[in-house]
Write a sequence for this structure.
């Protein structure tokens, strides 16, 4: 089974929620299927719903030989809506995903959007999404409209996700500090990777991974920059004894439980991820429709020279285990 663990869709009804909404992200209609998304004065993205159509996605999957795509609704997450609209936004996303999965004949699985940082509403929606809608994980941005992921108020949320034994999938969003690096397209170029790495490091150093040992986390884009910095993180915590207020083990020991996807246009970065994490913690992902599935496949073929059983695990076996996909193709 070939699985793409990072693939995005975007429902029109969800886009419409952002039009004239007084949140940190707003949208304006720019055509029959196009919306201009504004993250304050920091970043502007053009969203074209045609790019996210299920028909186009299935065609791309067929061309690339992908059996199953794990879908999520792309950023902005519901946390960027005004608080009164966050639950409605999450429910729109999850209902849409469930409908796609149900009509796909096993080609789609999906992970849930939640109305964080409202923990009570998120716990209720998490139960609905997993138990009623059959979604298979949780989409979590690198911050929640400015709230850090190790905020103590989120503890019941992490406990619930760990108890359900579904993966928590990190995803970049425009950082709170994005205005400082918005020039030259440095936000999607580099800041996204750094912000997810800070988020992952907070889950480690903030003690979330220690307090919830059953929590399964996916760090996208070959771990951002964190694998490259782990030696420095280790030296700071284990030699200089800094940043250890909430942990009893080394940061690397917690990160050994984390899965990495291979969304990177770099065979060299994939080889480093393989050396760092091993084949048993890597999963194929494309970031479609932002990136062509074949582009990532080509880099994977050029970058990873492994026995077929290990390549099969990376192409889909690991994802099938993590997301419970074994019955989809039966």
């Amino acid at each position: 089974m070939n699985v793409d663990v990072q693939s995005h869709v975007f429902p029109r009804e969800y886009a419409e929620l952002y039009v004239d909404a007084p949140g940190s992200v707003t949208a304006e209609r720019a055509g029959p299927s196009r919306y201009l998304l504004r993250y304050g004065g920091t970043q502007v993205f053009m969203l074209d719903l045609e790019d996210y159509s299920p028909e186009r996605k299935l065609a791309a999957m067929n061309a690339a030989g992908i059996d199953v795509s794990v879908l999520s609704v792309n950023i902005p997450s519901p946390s960027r809506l005004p608080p009164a609209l966050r639950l409605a936004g999450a429910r729109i996303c999850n209902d849409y995903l469930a409908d796609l999965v149900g009509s796909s004949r096993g080609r789609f699985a999906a992970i849930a959007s939640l109305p964080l940082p409202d923990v009570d509403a998120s716990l209720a929606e998490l139960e609905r999404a997993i138990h009623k809608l059959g979604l298979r994980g949780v989409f979590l941005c690198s911050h929640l409209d400015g709230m850090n992921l190790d905020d103590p108020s989120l503890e019941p949320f992490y406990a619930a996700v760990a108890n359900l034994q579904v993966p928590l999938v990190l995803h970049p969003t425009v950082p709170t500090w994005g205005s400082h690096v918005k020039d030259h397209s440095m936000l999607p170029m580099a800041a996204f990777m750094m912000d997810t790495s800070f988020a992952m490091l907070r889950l480690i150093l903030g003690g979330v991974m220690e307090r919830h040992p059953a929590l399964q986390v996916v760090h996208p884009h070959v771990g951002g920059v964190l694998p490259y910095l782990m030696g420095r993180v280790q030296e700071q915590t284990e030699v200089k004894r800094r940043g250890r207020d909430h942990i009893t083990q080394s940061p690397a020991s917690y990160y050994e439980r984390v899965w990495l996807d291979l969304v990177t246009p770099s065979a060299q970065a994939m080889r480093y991820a393989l050396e760092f994490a091993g084949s048993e913690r890597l999963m194929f992902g494309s970031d479609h429709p932002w990136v062509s599935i074949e582009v990532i496949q080509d880099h994977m073929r050029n970058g990873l020279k492994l026995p077929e059983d290990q390549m099969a695990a990376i192409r889909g076996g690991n994802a099938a285990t993590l997301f419970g996909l074994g019955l989809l193709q039966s």
In short: The chain has 13 helices and eleven strands. The first strand starts at residue 3 and ends at 9. Residues 140 and 170 are 5 Å apart (CA to CA).
